[in-house]
Amino acid sequence: CSALERIDGLITDNITSANELFHGCSSLHTIGSPLDFSNVTSKIENTFTTCKSLVNVSFKGSINVNITISGCSKLSVDSLVSLFNALADNVSDKICKIGSTNLGKLTDDQKAIATNKGWTLQ
């Protein structure tokens, strides 16, 4: 999938694992359908590892597991805020790794969307 630039119509509502879902998609720029990881029960750490070109992605549902998206340093602020809005409420010991480049794009109020839910941003 290294040449894939856009994905539309992807339905993720019922998946229980997102491990390596977009592995190797280094040219992927846009995921046109909101990702729903509500039923994912394992860490989301290798899902976006090689998505260095990803700019646009949105999330829906409620993410209840640790997520790593730090390999996507080109993400838009809207994409990051969408991720934060989809993080489950009232968690403890959950980590959302977005990387220093993405952290630098956000205001304190935007980061607070995640941290007020109990998530640790890295």
Structure summary:
The protein has helices at 77-86, 99-105, 108-115, and strands at 6-7, 30-31, 35-36, 59-60, 67-68, 94-97, 119-121. The protein is α/β, with parallel strands linked by helices and 122 residues long.
- Percent of residues in helical segments? 10-25%
End-to-end separation? 28 Å
Strand order of the largest sheet: 5-6-7
Compute the gyration radius: what is it? 13 Å
Total beta strand runs: 7
Mean pLDDT: 96
Question: What is the number of helices?
Answer: 3
- Low-confidence runs of at least 5 consecutive residues: none
Query: Overall 3D geometry?
Result: globular
Oligomer: single chain
Query: What percentage of the residues does DSSP assign to strands (E)?
Result: 5-15%
Largest sheet: 3 strands, parallel
By secondary-structure content and strand pairing, the structural class works out as alpha/beta
Order of helices and strands: EEEEEHEHHE
Report on the structure:
The mean pLDDT is 96. The chain is 20% helix and 14% strand. It has 3 helices and 7 strands. A 3-stranded parallel beta sheet has the order 5-6-7. It has a two-stranded parallel sheet with strand order 1-2. It has 122 residues and is an alpha/beta fold.
Q: Tags for this entry?
A:
122 residues, alpha/beta, three-stranded parallel beta sheet, 3 helices, globular
Describe the secondary structure blueprint for this structure:
Elements: E1 6-7, E2 30-31, E3 35-36, E4 59-60, E5 67-68, H1 77-86, E6 94-97, H2 99-105, H3 108-115, E7 119-121
Parallel strand pairs: 1-2, 3-4, 5-6, 6-7
